[in-house]
Design a protein that fits this description.
385 residues; single chain; Porin; mainly beta; 2 domains; 23 strands; 2 helices
Length: 385
Amino acid sequence: MRSLLTLLLLMYATWGHTHSNNDVITMYNGDRITGEIKGLANGDLKINPPYAPVISLDLQNIASIESNYNYEILTENNERLYGNISSTDKTGELQFTSIDSAKVIPLLEITEIRPIEESFAERLQYTIGANFNLEPDIQTYKVEGTVSYASLRGQTSARANILQSNYRSLNEQGDYEDDYTQTQGLFRLENERWSKFSNNWYRSFSGQYDYNDQLNNFGRVSLGSGFGRYFIDNAGMRLSTLIGLQGIAERSKVENEADAEPDILQFSFCSGDLFDESCSDDISFIKQTDFSAEGFLTSSFVMYSLTDVDLDINITGSLYPSLTEGDRLRAHLEAAVKWEVISDLNIKLSLNSDYDSGKEDSGELESFRKKTLDYSILLGLEWAP
């Protein structure tokens, strides 16, 4: 009841006035910046002065923060606080005040600050990126985006990416020409609910659609749930692990039997190169949908610089052991390094890799050339306002 009263009073205080431009940030070199605090993440505090666009300030260079607005604060021990912040007589500290409590928090122990905003749009955070790899024999393009919405007890996020690789070969005249194309993509929606009993634990519910024709995946739908824990969450570093179960429905190509009646797809096959246009032997294939269950174990590591060099490292790895298909194992790895070149614009070097040991189904293609491992290394740009 008391926590409900706290929340209602905070909401009332928010509705009673808009977030003005009277927040004050004082730097260790004596500079004072007045404006509207947009939030703190990855060691950067964003503030919008009335006379300039949003600027980012390194947390280690900030001596004090003064504001009359209400915020959600996350500390390095995963304590979530909701209330007002102000400066103290000592630099490098922040005075937090709510209906329930008041305490002094060192600034470098704060990992996130989010205004308790008035509108849905102001709670959204998003990124948009484009990556590419241009070589004579392969051209790869990738577009990706993320969006997240933070509430008092959790966060909902969505992400999508689409990748296309155009493979090329030399013709008799010595010129490169298009040979064949491979595509892959991912669309994921996830909701995290933070535990009321322990700041280190959270629940996750997720849904995902992905495809990768290199791995004989022509559409996979996954629905899952699990429990996660933050092992490290401080200014500059975060390590978390999530474990759970999910059900999947996936389409793959299998050899067509004589009595099968589904839609038949014709592909050319030769003992040499599958994509050799001179091949003329026809084999019929069909797309078959299978249902199965699997576990998942995901670990995520994020590290960002608290210096003037704005460098972020993000590594996420997942294992998916099948519970219904014997020895089948899937794995996914994402790693990215980002440098901020100008405000909100980053250069991004990324690695994406997928592994699938394959199904035990005897009807699965033996002649169709498919991979068990697919990866890409791309350089691109990301915009993260």
